[in-house]
Amino acid sequence: MKAKVVLLSLLTAMSLSAQELTIYSHRHYDSDKGIFKLFQEKTGISVNVVQAKANELAKRLEVEGKNSKADLFMTADAGNLEQVRTNNLFVSVSSPELEKLSPKELRGKNNEWYAFTTRARIIVASKDRVKDGEIKTYEDLTDPKFKGKVLVRSSNNIYNISLLSAMIDTLGKEKAKEWAQGITNNLARTPKGADRDQIRAVYAKEGDVAISNSYYLGHLANSKNPKDVEAANSVKVIFPNQDDRGTHINVSGIGVLKTSKNKEAAVKFIEFMLSKEAQEILTNQNYEYPVNKEVKPAKILQSWGEFKIEKPNFEAYWGNAKEALMIFDEVQWK
């Protein structure tokens, strides 16, 4: 009997090692490349990564239909994940390991996708030009005293779409529109560049405050470019709305696709993404918040302190996206 069990385990391992996973990924980080390599070394399962923008990959999955070779869809932002989920392209999966490692509030509605990191949509403000306590909420950025001082990227960016979609869900359409109009009124310049560029612009005194994802500040602070380090050190971190709903968060996540011919291996990969080993790589190299409770955030994230999180309704991130884009257009947030 013991010999049969050993033989069965051996055959299972051989079967998995002969497999290949194809991952459609929007993410482009060195941390992910290291994780792909480590997973392949540990399991023998080869990983083929197809990279493109999230909306391009989602469209490709629709066009390919049942003929798609993709096993997993991996991306930043819950809005992107929800787009694929609502298009009925994911399959619900679970395992004892996933149940142990994945917080239930950081998953798709029926376990169609799993978040493996989170990031906060923070406010960064000049240490020299913004007084402590002067900004406590996202809404404070709409105060006329900040006219010509607010920096943020374009309205067609998924991070801003998800932020406004969440506001529509929690505050209602009218208040969300008032906020977007207030930001537009206070812009220091026509939106351009990525989040890191907004922080650099605060350092360059083009504005006094910026909206950014938290991990971008981590990258600047740990950059090999001295000017980027100076830019990071010139600003302070504000976690908005700590006295009420909390700070907006988003996720990076992954889900198994219905077209996958290697679902067992695909689940193993998600389990690995949630493992202590992979989570430590993600937080220490990419400065994202880990979802595995056994893993401490990177030291720089710890230095900013703990913060209250706004309870996320990820379905709204995509469900309200069209309405959010309409609001951006109406208030002329470019």
From TrEMBL:
* Record keywords, A-Z: Signal
For this protein, the record's InterPro entries field holds: Ferric-bd
Question: Where would one find the signal peptide in this protein?
Answer: none
The family database entries (Pfam families) matched by this protein are listed as: SBP_bac_6
* Gene3D superfamilies listed in its UniProt record: Periplasmic binding protein-like II
Q: Which domain of life is it from?
A: Bacteria
Gene Ontology CC terms: outer membrane-bounded periplasmic space
Question: Record keywords: Amino-acid biosynthesis included?
Answer: no
PANTHER family xrefs: IRON-UTILIZATION PERIPLASMIC PROTEIN, THIAMINE-BINDING PERIPLASMIC PROTEIN-RELATED
Q: Say which family it is in.
A: Belongs to the bacterial solute-binding protein 1 family.
Name it: Fe(3+) ABC transporter substrate-binding protein
- The organism encoding this protein is Campylobacter ornithocola
